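Practice record 12: protein with MTE.
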Amino acid sequence: MLLRKSPSLEATIRSSEITPQHVFEEHQHSRRRFLTSAATLGAAALAARTIPSLINPPTTVQAAEQLKTISSKYTLDDPQTPLAKASTYNNFYEYGTDKSDPSHEAYRLQTRPWPVQITGMVKKPQTINIDDLLSYRPLESRVYRFRCVEAWSMIIPWDGYSLSEFINFCQPLPSAKYIQFFSYNNRKVMPYEPSSYDWPYREGLRMDEAMNPLTLLTFGCYGQVLPNQNGAPVRVIVPWKYGFKSAKAIVRFHFTDKQPATTWNEADGDEYGFYSNVNPNFDNARWSQAHERRLDSSLLPRNIPTQMFNGYGDQVASLYTGMDLKKFY
Ligand SMILES: Nc1nc2c(c(=O)[nH]1)N[C@H]1C(S)=C(S)[C@@H](COP(=O)(O)O)O[C@H]1N2
Ligand SMILES: [Mo]
């Protein structure tokens, strides 16, 4: 599972982690100047040999550290998507809209320090730090199906603990009926963020959905810290819903009594509903959802039928008893 690390990359990453940010930025800046002048002198090849990390900016794929995890009952027989695919084929629009953009650009995100806000209808609004959040409960390894509304799917081993554990820690008031997630947003490190959307990225769940044991507060995948492009340092994974419900790089959990606005629902309410449960019988405006492409699997047919609730119906169907899933899509 470990990607081979080149020693020079490792050295670069380590220095970026221990060097104060402004010093690191100056260092990067002077290296960039060096590269520019080297290129001007026609010495780009030499520069490439001397400073390989400039040619391939280090990402947290390379920097990933092993996490201590325990096994769980959430396993699947399907072959897992290779990490190399899951960390290079991403939707993270803050880092560009092309699938390959986030793995090239998200190295800019600094995931420490990372204050996490708890706001709204809770006993005591507060801010906690990411390492306290990470160590609050043992991290379980859970292999889930992951289904994007664009009809591709992967099988990914995530590392985290049930969001319900964290919600209990937050002590929501009885009036809180929904939880909203706010992703990090900072133009300085997200220079190609499309201006056509209203940032920060926002998602949300009904409280009973958020409390379902399947909903995972996620810090890692493949036994390693999340690559930045996959939503470091913390995201949610909601495996019975389309991928866009699984917000990345969360900085704030907000408890409210009203169904919260969400980024994709605001962008196009006809296509992206608040619930967005995986449903092969309900097509979006642009896509049939009956089938999905399982990415990078040589062992299964590439085009496979999509399952209701992405195959998690036994655990979540009861959340929607009596609801018209075509009206509340
Ligand atoms: N902050 C943020 N979270 C996000 C997105 C995004 O653009 N920004 N894209 C969503 C979509 S559409 C999908 S399919 C998944 C992709 O997660 P992955 O890149 O880890 O596969 O992240 C979701 N979470
Ligand atoms: Mo998606």
